[in-house]
Here is the input.
Amino acid sequence: MEALDRRSFLITTGAVAAAAASAPSSVAAQAPAAVFLSTWEWGVAANRRAAEVVAGGGSLLDAIEKGINVVEDDPNVTSVGYGGLPNAQGEVELDAGIMDGATHRAGSVCNLHKIKNPISVARLVMEKTRHTTLAGDGALQFAIAMGFTPMQLLTPKSLEAWLKWRSSPNRESFWIDREHHDTIGMVGVDGRGQVVAGCSTSGLAWKIPGRVADSPLVGCGYYADAAAGAASATGNGDVMSNYCTSMRIVTRMGQGLHPQEACDEVMGVMAKTAPNVRSDMYCVIAIDPRGEIGAASMNVAQPLQYALWKNGQGALHTAAPFLH
Ligand code: ASP
Here is the structure.
């Protein structure tokens, strides 16, 4: 993620974190068992919204969707939804996926243009069709049929960033630019047996149009199994998708590993063969049905920040780097 953007998010989410800390205890009283775990600073606001949804009687699927919507709607988050940095042709191209751990159903969209809430479209793919994934124009047409309104997703800020990149004679291409990306990955349990995972991203800035990485792929960017838990991933999705990170983690939790052990184990597997493990971002989060959590990343210079909502309280944490 771009350094400037990260600083501005820290300012934004500092206020959100303070608001979360002073939240009325009624939310805690109404939904004491729900636990939400999300990636990066913006996860604080996503978790807070999710907790409100559950406290208001919504399902865990509602909570994860609405929580992710908060980040998709935020123009200051330049790697998710509205305001996300575009592909090489200047088009914002979004990916998202969601999985219901109780039914083992998932829905996702890839390369979706002009719709700011891809996680909501993904959920409708899961609930209204017999498909799992819709891509490109088919995904857009489906979204329109479901009542979504197409809009311009470039903001003045993201347009300016793209114009600057495009006009630079020595610009880094999609082959080597590893800086401009991030994802809202979110997992949650409701304490009543339901487990859900979801994620949403604009992917790698300046990517080749049509690029699909881990975020919309079941088992890669997200995975949920009510018997074992849920996981999500953020980082270099071109590489991470080759390790099916989220499914690996959930499978190992199902075999008895604590979420932290399962996250560390997948980092260890990747450390053996993934490129640039000290400089690239490779990050995962996980939760088990009891609400125990894990979080891991390998880049010591840019460790994963994750937001946890538990016992009615929200806080932002930094994952201890996985040492390899
Ligand atoms: N995994 C996302 C992608 O490669 C980006 C990120 O999470 O940083 O599209």
